[in-house]
Amino acid sequence: MLLLSFLVVCHGGSLSKSFYQHSCPQADDIIKSKTLQHVSADPNLPAKLLLMHFHDCFVRFNKPLWEVPTGRRDGTVSKSIDALTNIPSPFFNFTQLKQNFARKGLTVSDMVVLSGAHTIGIAHCNSFSNRLYNFTGKGDQDPSLDSTYAAFLKTKCKSLSDTTTTVAMDPGSSGNFDSHYYPNLLQKKGLLQSDAALLIEDQSKGIVQELVNQNNFFTEFAKSMERMGAIEVLTGSAGEIRIKCSVVNS
Ligand code: HEM
Ligand SMILES: *[C@@H]1O[C@H](CO)[C@@H](O)[C@H](O)[C@H]1NC(C)=O
Ligand SMILES: *[C@@H]1O[C@H](CO)[C@@H](O)[C@H](O)[C@H]1NC(C)=O
Question: Which residue range or ranges hold the Plant heme peroxidase family profile domain (predicted)?
């Protein structure tokens, strides 16, 4: 429910909470009840929605306009190459991650907080199996990965060529949106290299330690989500309203 309310806020209301007040007074209720209906049919949906929101926010939209804070509109450009160049790679080191978030006006703190989204959902073996089998190109394992956890992961991802198997991102608690990601990370059980990278610097590691506290995490996550949701947003007459969500109007 917490997660859903973020999604509704970010998609419908963060620019102006009353944007649909006159044009479609039931909009928020419709979105909420439809989302709930779909989520109860598919518990994996919140993870997909959250990931989609992250990717939407990081990918370039055409001509951002900030001065008319009304409703969020769709981009008139949709290129897969934009996703590849904007979305951070799981193989990024701390410096690269920090730069990637900074380019979008987000801080190291936002980055650590938002990475907590990895408390739910799954990852494919090829997003991390280099850490198990060929970390530095010498057939070695990532020393910053807990060895018991690595042994477990090897039973799931049997080789570097496995691109289809998936594993839970936050083992033991991957169905729950909670702060479990952080104690897990501190035990060297962060799944992705980009998760482990958050422990590299003292400042960032300090933030990880603070977010073990679930109240802190929820409060900070909501704030950082709002900031992420405001990245290069299209409002007023910028962009368009797509007839079909996945494609630019012709
Ligand atoms: C810090 C930089 C980040 C990197 C490098 C990263 C990378 C990844 C990767 C590689 C996966 C697994 C994809 C797969 O193998 O199928 C993943 C999953 C996921 N990520 Fe991130 N991510 C980052 C930050 C975020 C943020 C900021 C959010 C949202 C606020 C987010 C939400 C998710 C979710 C919910 C999943 C699970 C999706 C599912 O279950 O299908 N990630 N991420
Ligand atoms: C991070 O990766 C970049 C690009 O591969 C590299 O130039 C840089 O030296 C790396 N930084 C650290 C601290 O390892
Ligand atoms: C491990 O990485 C090295 C260097 O990139 C490469 O030559 C080797 O083929 C890789 N091993 C496997 C099993 O892919």
Answer: 47-249
What is the rounded CA–CA span in Å between residue 133 and residue 154?
A: 9
Residue numbers in the known binding site are 88, 118-119, 170, 178
> What are the pLDDT digits (tens) for 46-99?
889 888 878 776 764 732 222 223 367 788 877 877 777 789 999 999 999 999
Q: So what's the pLDDT on residue 249?
A: 92
Q: Class of the 4-121+169-229 domain?
A: mainly alpha
Tell me if 80 CB under 6 Å of ligand 3. no
Q: Which residues define the annotated binding site for substrate?
A: 88
Q: Which residues of 12-23 are buried (b: 16+ CB within 10 A; e: fewer)?
A: bbbbeeebbeee
CA distance 234 to 64: 5
Ligand nearest to the Cα of 94, by number: 2
Report the Cα–Cα distance between both ends of the chain, in Å, rounded.
36
